[in-house]
Design a protein that fits this description.
About 20% of the residues lie in helices and about 25% in strands. It is α+β, with helices and mostly antiparallel strands. The strands form seven sheets. Strands 2-1-3-7-9-12 form a six-stranded mixed sheet, with helices on both faces. It has a six-stranded antiparallel sheet with strand order 13-14-17-16-15-18. Strands 26, 28, 29, 30, 33 and 34 form a six-stranded mixed sheet that branches. A hairpin with a 5-residue loop joins strand 28 and strand 29. The longest helix is centred in the C-terminal third of the chain and has 23 residues.
């Protein structure tokens, strides 16, 4: 009897330890695309978000049976409430990891319990909620209810659990003339009596949804929101031209780069980088315990290798990585025997090239025939990665058929440009309420003018001017997204805002260091005003004896500047020793254009000189250094010009350099 009792204790202990080491990962995805026509809500692309989020979570170890998806008619107020109760609160156990994702509309609504100082609740919009006020009970999913359900989930998860909430909606974004789909409305859902009482005042709160309540024993929670309260939430365009939530797409890409050491703050920083290129006038927000480790340290990280799937019927070979994760046609691969980890000192059994990159998987072609057994067991490693092409899709919003035909003739000569009236990067405008009928304008989705010219400009001159601007746009977009990682080159930087202390406004002005928090909001978004000044600290946390660094600045108007080394500097002078921090005394002054600017620091074993490439617009220069990163920048200029072979980009080894990217906002000094 005693032996049996001891065995029971032993097996119970083993079970408890295994359970503690392997928490379940549970997710609920709610996505509403097609609201009823009578509701007044516009159609969205939330259905595409489901695939993005589900795929990203499964790559992080979430099992498909533990991911519940609620769409359209299923996602009524009752349906959403029941799903949170059944598929989150009831399903999770103490110590588990949970994710709640919502894609749809949002709206401010008249407060129903007097707990809001501005008299308005925030809400996400179920399938059966109306945009216009109707007397009687509403069907909005209010912040009070959401906060209550999240608190119940956190209590069930316990102090050792983890909850992540992602809201790809906007409850109060200011509607503008955006060219794509937007989520949310500036229309308040309120009774006539309330509107009369408040004068229809619309209040923008800084608290997003106000859904975080702290009680002892609750699981830590982090929340990501698609935009600040005063902004609209624009949809992004997927590589195949279809739409998707900008936060959903950015989150899925950022999550693919996360590992067990990634914090929620680091994940959010990567989301900001992704969104800076997807939606140029949108500021994602974050709340909660952002310095905690993602999923309690249980994030899996990006796969070091892939395995091949063979489709005998279609006679194709594929690997599970594609455009969503920044891999395009032309990427080269190496196949090794299973369990090969030191690829530098091993010979590949074959090589391959990605011939057709899909959204989530890519078809490959081998350079030689290998056996089926070798094919099934091979470990596939990236060799040189093509991170995207430099093509630009353009939509023509011009009523004048003669002018439209002329412009289509101009674009037909530009290698990088294609006309696509369904899914475009840039938009050709003329003669609308905000664009002069005497001129032509090329604008981005944020309505920033990329190029303009009089209608009567000679066609050849127009071609020369606009092809250069399209090249600049494509190059800046490519460089904003370029993320090369070498874990050995741990070089980063930090902004140091400067505060004037004497002789301000003169050439003799003196400055002192200030804290970055003086230029940041609660989510860590950095805002500099016109006229602000900053310098940089360069930090080397690696064990590499010496690393060189280059700093690039990508402006909102697509101009790329090499900040370091400067015009008269020698690139070999900009190095940093292991475990060192360098204070740079050079002062940078903030100025227009306004919008989202991006700073990139590139760490490498050898000094880089990228200045000649940008100054000469990619012209071949005798004696200029030609490392892999210089080659890839050279390739961004080779894509310009008239049609030859198309705007494809060169490939590069993923660990050739290490790039750290930080976006920041430049705003008017008002």
């Amino acid at each position: 009897m005693r032996k049996s009792f001891l065995l029971i204790l032993l097996f119970s202990s083993v079970f408890i330890n295994v359970h503690a080491q392997d928490p379940s990962k549970v997710a609920l995805i709610i996505a509403i695309s097609k609201y009823p026509a009578a509701s007044g809500w516009g159609e969205l692309s939330s259905n595409n978000d489901v695939k993005l989020i589900k795929d990203a979570l499964m790559r992080q170890g979430f099992k498909e049976q533990n991911i519940t998806v609620l769409t359209d008619k299923q996602a009524t107020l009752v349906g959403m409430t029941n799903a949170i109760d059944k598929d989150l609160i009831e399903k999770v156990k103490p110590g588990d990891i949970a994710v709640l994702h919502f894609s749809g509309h949002g709206q401010q609504i008249e407060d129903d319990n007097g707990d809001e100082g501005d008299g308005l609740d925030e809400s996400i919009i179920p399938y059966d909620a109306n945009i216009e006020y109707h007397p009687g009970p509403d069907k909005h999913f209010r912040d009070d209810l959401l906060g209550k359900k999240l608190a119940e989930t956190r209590m069930k998860l316990g102090a050792n659990g983890n909850l992540l909430v992602v809201i790809d909606a906007c409850h109060s974004g200011t509607m503008t003339r955006g060219v794509g789909k937007t989520r949310g409305t500036n229309q308040v859902y309120a009774s006539p009596a309330f509107k009369t009482k408040t004068g229809m005042a619309r209040t923008i709160s800084d608290d997003s949804y106000g859904i975080i309540n702290e009680t002892k024993g609750m699981a830590p929670m982090a929340c990501f929101f698609a935009s600040s309260p005063s902004e609209q939430n624009e949809e992004a365009v997927l590589p195949d031209g279809s739409g998707a939530g900008s936060l959903s797409l950015a989150f899925s890409r950022a999550l693919s780069k996360a590992d067990k050491n990634t914090s929620y703050r680091a994940l959010f920083d990567n989301i900001k980088v992704e969104m800076s290129s997807l939606v140029s006038r949108q500021t994602p927000m974050a709340e909660g315990e952002l310095d905690n480790t993602l999923f309690g340290g249980k994030a899996l990280g990006k796969p070091k290798y892939y395995t091949i799937t063979k489709d005998d019927k279609a006679k194709t070979l594929s690997i599970p990585v594609g455009k969503i994760y920044g891999v395009f046609e032309g990427t080269t691969l190496k196949l090794f025997k299973p369990d090969t980890r030191d690829t530098a000192n091993a010979s590949p059994i074959a090589r391959a090239t990605i011939t057709d990159a899909g959204e989530y998987s890519s078809e490959i072609k081998l350079d030689k025939t290998i056996t089926d057994d070798e094919l099934k067991t091979a470990w596939v490693y990236m060799d040189a990665v093509n991170y995207g092409d430099l093509g630009v899709k353009i939509k023509t919003n011009i009523a004048d058929e003669g002018l439209k035909k002329k412009m289509e003739g101009v674009f037909s000569k530009i290698k990088q440009a294609t006309i696509d009236n369904d899914a475009a990067d840039l938009f050709l405008q003329s003669g609308s309420s905000i664009y002069s009928a005497d001129s032509i304008y090329l604008v981005n989705a944020g309505e920033m003018v990329i190029w303009s010219a009089p209608k009567g400009m000679e066609e050849q001159k127009m071609f020369e001017n606009i092809s250069m601007k399209i090249g600049d746009y494509a190059r800046s977009k490519y460089l904003r997204n370029l993320a090369l990682t070498n874990p050995v080159y741990k070089v980063s930087f930090e902004f140091v805002p400067l505060k004037c202390v004497s002789d301000c406004g003169t050439h003799n002005a003196r400055y002192m260091d200030n804290k970055i928090r003086t230029k940041s909001d609660a989510s860590g978004n950095i805002f500099f005003k016109d006229g602000d000044r900053f310098r940089l600290n360069i930090i080397n946390n690696s064990d590499q004896k010496r690393l060189y660094y280059t700093v690039l600045d990508i402006q909102p108007d697509n101009v790329v500047n090499v900040l370091i080394p400067g015009t008269k500097d020698a690139p070999e002078d900009f190095f940093i020793s292991q475990q060192d921090t360098i204070r740079l005394d050079k002062i940078f002054v903030i100025g227009p254009p306004y919008g989202i600017d991006v700073l990139k620091i590139i760490a490498s074993e050898a000094p880089l000189d990228l200045r000649y490439i940008f100054e000469s617009r990619g012209a071949q220069t005798r004696g200029a250094p030609k490392g892999p990163f210089e080659n890839i920048l050279q390739g961004t200029y080779n894509a310009e010009g008239t049609h030859t072979r198309g705007p494809k980009q060169v490939a590069i080894q993923p660990d050739a350099v290490n790039i750290i990217t930080v976006p920041y906002h430049i705003i008017k000094n008002e």
